[in-house]
């Protein structure tokens, strides 16, 4: 085994200390693992929430494990840093699924809930940024098509996701944010955002920055820096 310290039985010190005083527990037979909600799972940081979603920033260091947690809501995510991450469904066998930085994934946990744990058995951080959708009934919003260089990477019954890559000096033409959603910076840089009827807005985005975006604005984006910028923008349905 790659980790001789028995990674499957490791629990983060925070969770061990909190114990029954804070974490919701479920009745279980002796020897069964404790299962916690996603927001209580080790290394899962709930950084933002509103009436639509709960945003999670998850960074699992090498040799560490996010113990068993439950997914019951639809979840959209972007892979921000990849490593050998070993996922083990409750009662199942561990599996490593190769991923790429910037890869976008949607999982329909509302239809098929999952309990699993994730162990980082690689040599670098494993990081995802994403969100749970609170409302299980889609259909409130209708995203509009976007012009190139926006590229649609997900389009399903819950979300539309777009990737925008701008090299220095490149411009993304006018488009309308027809539905509320989330922006995640996969590669940061200097952008100038021009929203119709408002002054130019310069943004110094960093890797891992995220922002909630309201529906309505018509905007253009221009790379005013010296490095390539990559964004993933989700719109809700």
Automatic annotation (TrEMBL):
Signal peptide: 1-29
Domain of life: Bacteria
InterPro entries hit by this protein: RmlC-like_jellyroll, RmlC_Cupin_sf, TAT_signal
PROSITE patterns cross-referenced by the UniProt entry: TAT
Protein keywords: Signal
Name of the protein in question: Cupin domain
Taxonomic source organism: Bradyrhizobium sacchari
């Amino acid at each position: 085994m790659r980790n001789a310290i028995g990674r499957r039985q490791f629990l983060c010190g925070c969770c061990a200390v909190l114990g029954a005083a804070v974490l919701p527990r479920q009745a279980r037979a002796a020897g069964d693992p404790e299962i916690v909600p996603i927001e209580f799972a080790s290394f899962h940081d709930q950084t933002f929430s509103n009436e639509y979603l709960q945003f999670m920033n998850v960074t699992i260091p090498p040799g560490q494990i996010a113990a068993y947690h439950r997914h019951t809501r639809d979840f959209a995510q972007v892979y921000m840093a990849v490593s050998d991450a070993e996922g083990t469904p409750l009662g199942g066998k561990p599996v490593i699924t190769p991923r790429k930085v910037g890869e976008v994934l949607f999982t329909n946990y509302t239809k098929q809930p999952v309990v699993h744990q994730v162990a980082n058995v690689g040599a670098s951080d494993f990081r995802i940024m994403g969100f749970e959708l609170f409302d299980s009934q889609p259909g409130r919003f209708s995203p509009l098509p976007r012009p190139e260089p926006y590229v649609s990477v997900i389009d399903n019954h819950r979300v539309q996701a777009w990737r925008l890559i701008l090299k220095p000096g490149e411009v993304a033409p006018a488009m309308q944010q027809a539905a509320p959603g989330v922006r995640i910076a996969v590669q940061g840089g200097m952008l100038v955002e021009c929203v119709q009827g408002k002054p130019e807005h310069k943004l110094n985005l960093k890797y891992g920055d995220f922002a909630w975006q309201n529906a309505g604005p018509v905007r253009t984006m221009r790379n005013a820096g010296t490095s390539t910028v990559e964004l993933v923008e989700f719109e809700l349905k």
